[in-house]
Amino acid sequence: MPLSTIRIATALVQPDYEWAFQSRLSLVAKMCTWLGHNEPRCRSLTGPAGYFRVSSQAEAYERRDEFTRAIGDELLTTFTFDLLGDDPSPKKRALDGKHLADGHALPFYGCLIDGGKPLGDIVQQLGRKSGDISAFVADAHARHRVHITSLLENRPVALSLCGEVRSRPWREALVEQTPCLILNPAHASVNLAGNPTRSWARHVDELLMKLPQDAAWAFADHITQLEHRANKQFVPLVQGGQGTRARRVNDSGWDIPGARLYVYEVLLVQEAG
């Protein structure tokens, strides 16, 4: 089976919630410019969850289209937003379902953007902690989160929003869809390592153990110091399955004020369909 190497970038941004949409969009455009100049082989960019904020369903689709135009046609990436308003959490504000967490529909949404066009529709975050997502809901929604991307040689890619990965039914539903790459945007300063009661590490490890050996998981969030460390060691933002090597090959340093890009080279062994 032929080998294939891809480059994936993840974006850490500082959690400054005072920025207007256009300012944040400008920062994303700067990320794309940096990648174009420094990593022209990069084909995927994972951004953080909740990076944009909108007040209505109509605005969400308008902002998605603006974002898509700003990204261009050379990247697979994530568009995410939190839906705000006078009462952001009731079920009536859900864009794509009636599933609940803590008695309310979560106001967190996202979609994939692939080569200058949306890849699937906007979807709602199903849960944020273990026990939030039932097996029925996970099975019903997982298939709508996995899509074929031409930018990665027609491989399947999945979107998992923030804390969904902590749900065992959600992990099992994703495994059934056998994605080659999972993009996982998260909200501010999620703990990837350290105290196991607060960490995602064991959940991600379990997911990668059950996925095909050539799968990879790519993470991004908001964090003040623009890097994740545990016990003074850097925590990788892209991790591979048992048969996949993922190594950091570049980062933007302080070239982009307010953000930092980390670029990983991932060796896949899955033959493209």
List the defining traits of the structure above.
globular, alpha/beta, 5-stranded mixed β-sheet, 273 residues, 5 helices, 8-stranded mixed β-sheet
Task: Give an overview in words.
There is one protein chain. The chain is an alpha/beta fold. The protein is built from 5 helices and 15 strands. The chain has helices spanning 21-38, 57-71, 135-142, 168-177, 201-210, and strands at 4-13, 42-46, 52-54, 76-83, 108-114, 117-124, 146-149, 155-159, 181-185, 216-220, 229-230, 233-234, 238-240, 245-251, 259-268. Mean pLDDT is 87; it is low at 86-99.
Task: Summarize the SSE layout with pairings.
Blueprint: E1 4-13, H1 21-38, E2 42-46, E3 52-54, H2 57-71, E4 76-83, E5 108-114, E6 117-124, H3 135-142, E7 146-149, E8 155-159, H4 168-177, E9 181-185, H5 201-210, E10 216-220, E11 229-230, E12 233-234, E13 238-240, E14 245-251, E15 259-268
Parallel strand pairs: 1-2, 2-4, 3-4, 8-9, 9-10
Antiparallel strand pairs: 1-15, 4-5, 5-6, 7-8, 10-13, 11-12, 14-15
